[in-house]
Structures are given as C-alpha cells and as structure tokens.
Amino acid sequence: MKGIDPALLGLSVLFIICMLALGAAWVWLWTRRIAKYIQTVDAVIDAAIQGRGPVTNYEETALSSMEHKLLRYISVSKANEQTIQIEKNKIKTLISDISHQAKTPLSNIIVYSQLLEELPGLDEEARHYVKDIKVQSDKLDWLIQSLIKLSRLETGMISLQIEAKPLLQTITKALSQVYVLAESKQIEIRIDCTAQLTARHDAKWTSEALFNLLENAVKYTKPTGSIQITAESNEMFTRVDISDTGIGIGKEELPHIFKRFYRGQQAREAEGVGIGLFLAREIITAQGGHIKVTSESGKGTVFSLFFP
C-alpha cells in the first residue's frame, strides 16, 4: 500500500460507509412508504367492501381517486346483484305459476282420457283417438316438467347438494324408472359398479341425468339388445359409462345432440321432444363434471360421465 496517503484512504473508506448508510436509509424509507401505501390500499378495499366511508384524505390524490372509483364499482356491482336477484325472484314466481296453472288441466285431460278408454262399446277409431290424446298429454306433461327443471337450474334457483355418496344407489334409482320399458323390449341391462365406489355428486339430480341417458338407451335399442353401465374411479375423476347396442348416432349429428330440442333424423321415429340430453349435460356441468359421447350409426352409443 506504499504511495497511498493514509488520510486519503481513510476519507475514501468513510465516504463509502456514508454512501452505504445513506443507501440503507433510503431503502428503509421507501420500504416504509410502500408498506404504508399497501396498508392504506388494504384499508380502502376493506372499507369499500364493507360499505364504510372513505378512509383517505383528499390530499392523497392517487389513493383518493382509486378509492372513489372502487366505491363506485362496488356500488354498481351491488345494484346489479340486486337487479339480478329481483329478476330471479320474478322468474321463480313465473315458473311456479306456470307449473301450478298447467298441472291441474293437464292432469284432468290425462284422467279423462283414461276414463274414456275404459268406456264399454267404444269403437276402434274412437279408442285410437283417445289413446293418442293420452300419449300426447303425457308427452306435454313431461315437457313442461323438464322445462321447469331446466329453468330452475339455469336461473340458479336450485342449490345442488354435492357430497361424496355411493354411485350404485344413484344408478339403481335411475334404472328403476326405465326397467319396465327395458323388460318389455327384452333388453338386458348389466351394471358393473361396486357398492363401495363413491363420487362427489348431487344424488337426486345426477339420478335425473342418468335417467335421461338410460331412457334414450332403452328407447333407441332394438328388442333383445343390451345396455352396459360401468363405473370406475381414479385419482383424477370418477367415470360412468352407459353403452348400448342401439341404432347409434351419425357422425354429422354428434356435435348437435346436446342442443336444446335437437332430434336426429333416426331419433324422430321415436317419441320424444329433444330436451333430455340437454338437461343431462346441464346437470352434470353444474356439478363441475362433463359428458362426452362416442357413437357410430348402426353400432350403438356410449355416453361417458366424468365427476371431479
């Protein structure tokens, strides 16, 4: 270190120490300012969410502007929520009114058609008309009930009770509603699902979705055909497959089958209104799951349900 003035070296070291101290002080001050700013922003957001008044001074221009905009946004959001709730209540009342007003006359028509059908001495042509009235009345009743269920789902009027429950119970409940029709067509139905297998789902509404899929399978499977129901689970999801040996679905129709009121060319020959698959998908989607379909015309169909 020869040739270096000790005094100059001391001054250099002192200068470096001072600069480091000033830098540390500057960083400390800015850290405090940022922390205070974050705390103020946090207080502004909390106050705005809870509906309290402004917490900043008008001198804090940037924060005051942000707080004012945030309060306006929350106010508009709350007003929109109230409007949506009012509309939901109106729809709920309308659906209840439609259900009530349509149920009684429709039930009367069905009862009267049954009474007419039992009348002695009724000629064959009249009996045929009476049977048609009953069939169309049943069809209309099913359509109204399906539309009511769908409206309740779409407007959020139904609160799904999603919890881990045995799938076999849900499947058998749906199956019980189509068993008589399947038996009349001599369709064999097999179930591969253990009693211990559980999935997070709403049992009532999932049973409704499964019923719609099973009804389609029975309806479009020829006599002496078969339907296979398979359920399995892994770490990612629980899967339920419903496969049949029915008429199948053409490749060009597959993208459309879940549309409301859509009926394929072959499906038009059977009774139906084209809302069952749409309703089934809405129910499964509302639970965070999804449905996919694989099919080929003349070779049967497989509907796969996935539960998270």
What are the main properties of this structure?
single chain; 308 residues; alpha+beta; Heat Shock Protein 90; 3 domains; two-stranded antiparallel sheet
Largest sheet geometry: 5 strands, mixed
CATH superfamily of the largest domain: Histidine kinase-like ATPase, C-terminal domain
Strands in their spatial order, largest beta sheet: 2-4-5-7-6
Order of helices and strands: HHHEHHEEHEEHEE
Count up the domains: 3
Outline: elongated
Distance, first to last CA:
74 Å
CATH structural fold name of the largest domain: Heat Shock Protein 90
CATH class designation of the largest domain: Alpha Beta
Mean pLDDT figure: 81
Q: How many DSSP E strands?
A: 7
User: Residue share in helices?
Assistant: 55-70%
